[in-house]
Amino acid sequence: QVQLVESGGGLVQAGGSLRLSCAASGRIRYYMGWFRQAPGKEREFVSAIGWSGGTTHHADSVKGRFTISRDNAKNTVWLQMNSLKPEDTAVYYCAAQRGGVVRGPYEYDYWGQGTQVTVSS
Prior knowledge:
Layout: E1 4-7, E2 10-13, E3 18-24, E4 32-37, E5 44-49, E6 56-58, E7 66-71, E8 76-81, E9 90-96, E10 110-111, E11 115-120
Parallel strand pairs: 2-11
Antiparallel strand pairs: 1-3, 3-8, 4-5, 4-9, 5-6, 7-8, 9-10, 9-11
């Protein structure tokens, strides 16, 4: 059982940067991911990172701008967002996989409450 709490969202101008944090109440394992949901749109995949941090996945829309990292000892995952665009505006959610099963980077069992990111033009 894992509880996730995101933080670090806010209002920034286009071209600016934000760093989101996700603190987990329990051990994080396998893939950890970030998703986002804009008003009127479905939740979409943003980034994922494997157990050791050596494997990452990113949506095409954020490649080259976003970086995902993790520290398993601290039960923490980060999303560094650079060169932000207005279309990045959304609620960002941290996601974790349950133990006992190995799966890919797009399927998750636990979700945080979300943190708002707003990018102005």
